[in-house]
Amino acid sequence: MRDGGGEDETRKWERITYAGIVACTALAFYNLSKGHPHFDPPP
């Protein structure tokens, strides 16, 4: 690897990390906002 070339790679992975955090948070809100069934208690 060339000297000083790691900055671009670091920036790339930092953006990917932040995008992943946003995507996972959005998916969690979506899944938790959907209705879910409630069953009668067992006898």
Automatic annotation (TrEMBL):
Chain coiled-coil ranges: none
Main location: mitochondrion
Keyword field contains Transmembrane: yes
UniProt keywords, alphabetically: Membrane, Mitochondrion, Mitochondrion inner membrane, Transit peptide, Transmembrane, Transmembrane helix
Transmembrane segments: 16-33
The UniProt record lists the keyword Mitochondrion: yes
Gene Ontology biological process terms from the UniProt entry: mitochondrial electron transport, cytochrome c to oxygen
One GO cellular component term noted in the UniProt record for this chain: mitochondrial inner membrane
PANTHER family: CYTOCHROME C OXIDASE POLYPEPTIDE VIA (PTHR11504), CYTOCHROME C OXIDASE SUBUNIT (PTHR11504:SF0)
The name this protein goes by in its record: Uncharacterized protein
Lineage, highest ranks first: Eukaryota, Viridiplantae, Streptophyta, Embryophyta, Tracheophyta
